[in-house]
Amino acid sequence: MAKGYWIAHVDVTNPEGYKEYVALNAKAFEKYGAKFLVRGGQFTAKAGTPRARHVVLEFKDYATALACYDSPEYKAACAVRDKNSIGDVIVIEGYDG
Q1: Domain that holds residue 25
Q2: Which end of the chain is more exposed for a tag (fewer CB within 10 A), N or C?
Q3: How far apart are CA 72 and CA 30, in angstroms?
């Protein structure tokens, strides 16, 4: 079964407020078994207009990745995230070729 992933590209607009989001999202990520593959870090933009921060989370499958994003725990974190950052998030099924 293919794994599920979140891919996020984020510009943090309020670093102090964003710390609360990080604390809140940890509850959802633990509950749904999320594993950080990328969390910030050095990058080189080769095309397009990048955001300042990039995150890739891995889940056991696509359904679990969706369930985490739609969970009450993550919705609470989103309310804080959206006040303190601008970003794009996709939930995607991995390749199981």
Answers
A1: 4-93
A2: C
A3: 13
The type of residue at 70 is: D
SS3 90: strand
From the CB of residue 88, how many other CB atoms can be counted at a distance below 10 Å? 10
Which CATH number is 68's domain given? Answer: 3.30.70.100
Domain count, the chain: 1
Give the β-pairing of 85-93 and 53-59.
unpaired
pLDDT by residue for the chain (97 residues), tens digit each? 899 999 999 999 999 999 999 999 999 999 999 999 999 999 999 999 999 999 999 999 999 999 999 999 999 999 999 999 999 999 999 998 8
